[in-house]
Design brief:
mainly alpha; about 0% strand; globular; binds phenylalanine; 20 helices; Hydantoin permease
Length: about 450
């Protein structure tokens, strides 16, 4: 029996809410550090190519599956074909793995907001400030719990009120502020070398690792291959134009990621010299670079605080969407009531998140495949599970259900302009590339390929 679901009240509501899920730490924190690490311009180019091919096809597919079935991932795949219900289960594992470490980074953002609110721009601009913070046992844990409780609080309010309202105000403000900081950074001495590094592809840096990193980032940033867009689609009204909604979400998400890179990478050149060590900082890049930018500005504490508030909201809307998805999964699967589900999942996130947070300090001897616990969780979800889910989805839609089931859904309200293109990608191009990438990523993790 189908339970009644609340709907987004308008197309704009859907687009903004889905963009609220898509735009988050993936764009602001993860994209710039990957682009910095994997060759700048070449990473950007590969990312853009993947976005207009894979990203587009997968997002259309997921939103259409959700809208057609009006169910979240597990129920949706099962409703389409009983034998393939397992795809929904694998997809649902992804948000479960991401949400604890996402909240840890959300906690870092909250901490930095606190730092700037209390006039700490100078202290935070020191090179070892960030490492000093994440290696402490207690403090990062407290900020993690603060962020998690904020997220859980909003989820308890409900889809419409919580997500829709928040994203309408926050997203445009974030865009404006990011542009402002970017322009300031571009005028700093040395920044132009960074612009060149970021915009000019160096083809000698093109490798399997770059493609894999860009692909994982694409899924992560657009909240794909994890059932999230299926859930969003399940709330979308049939009168809304699916193809153009998806395009708008993708463009918005990509523009924010692009700008975040343009804000951070030239700043790495201007403030940290732009050598390989400065560019290869990984997860700490944003937290090391931006405080230096703010510290160099007049009113740096105020601007830093406003910036981290916006980032905090962007992170919150994404975390809300993650938590919301997990709650909706256990609701559809086991009928667990929403509030109760939120409380249970929040407690579980605390349990799993604590060791990940401690993994930078007292638990740093636990290093699966030579990675920190946070990087390991990130690797399992982005480089292993998401390509698997994406591959299974393509095979299922391309050969079992046939693309027509998706194109019909898209065409319920207007023309599907990229219909032919869509079918070719979903049936052939995407599955072949995904398998190649997956095999590569596993071999690399096992140390069988050295890059
Ligand atoms: N897409 C979001 C971002 O870019 C993160 C996210 C990942 C949200 C997974 C939901 C699920 O930050």
């Amino acid at each position: 029996m189908e339970k009644k679901r609340s709907n987004f009240s308008s197309k704009l509501g859907f687009v903004l809410a889905a963009a609220g899920s898509a735009v988050g730490l993936g764009n602001l924190w993860r994209f710039p550090y990957l682009a910095a690490k994997y060759g700048g311009g070449i990473f950007l180019l590969v990312y853009l190519v993947l976005a207009i091919t894979f990203g587009f096809a997968l997002m259309i597919t997921e939103v259409a599956i959700g809208r057609k079935t009006r169910l979240s991932a597990i129920g949706a795949f099962k409703k389409l074909d009983k034998k393939f219900g397992f795809i929904g289960i694998v997809a649902s594992l992804v948000p479960v793995i991401i949400v604890p470490y996402y909240c840890i980074i959300g906690g870092w953002v909250t901490k930095y907001l606190g730092v700037f609110l209390t006039g700490g721009a100078k202290a935070a601009s020191a090179d070892d400030y960030f490492t000093g913070f994440i290696t402490k046992p207690g403090e990062p844990l407290i900020w993690f719990v603060v962020f998690l409780l904020l997220t859980a609080g909003v989820v308890l309010v409900g889809v419409q009120k919580g997500i829709e309202k928040a994203s309408k105000i926050i997203m445009p403000c974030l865009l404006v502020l990011t542009i402002g900081i970017t322009v300031y950074g571009l005028f700093q001495p040395g920044a132009m070398d960074g612009v060149l590094y970021y915009l000019k592809p160096d083809f000698s840096r093109l490798s399997g690792t770059t493609v894999l990193a860009a692909m994982g980032q694409l899924f992560y940033s657009m909240s794909l291959a994890m059932g999230i867009m299926i859930t969003y689609g399940s709330y979308m009204q049939t009168e809304d134009h699916l193809e153009s909604s998806v395009r708008q979400i993708e463009i918005f998400d990509t523009v924010i990621a692009f700008l975040a890179g343009l804000m951070i990478i030239p700043a790495v050149f201007a403030f940290s010299g732009g050598d390989a060590a400065a560019l290869g900082k990984g997860p700490s890049l944003m937290f090391v670079t931006l405080p230096k930018v703010f510290d160099s500005m007049a009113f740096g504490n105020v601007i830093g605080a406003v910036f981290f508030i916006m980032v905090l909201f962007a992170a919150l809307t994404s975390a809300i969407s993650l938590l919301e998805t997990v709650v909706s999964i256990i609701h559809d699967k086991w009928g667990i009531e929403r509030r109760k589900g939120t409380v249970i999942i929040t407690l579980l996130i605390m349990l799993v998140g604590a060791p990940i947070s401690l993994g930078f300090g007292v638990l740093d001897f636990i290093a699966p495949l030579g990675m920190s616990l946070l990087d390991f969780f990130d690797f399992i979800s982005n480089s292993i599970l998401m390509p698997i889910v994406a591959f299974l989805t393509c095979i299922f839609v391309g050969f079992v259900m046939k693309p027509k089931i998706i194109t019909d859904e898209v065409e319920k309200n207007g023309k599907f302009k990229a219909k032919g293109y869509y079918s070719v990608i979903i049936k052939f191009i995407a599955p072949v590339c995904l398998i190649a990438i997956l095999v590569f990523s596993i071999l690399e993790a096992l140390g069988m390929i050295v890059v």
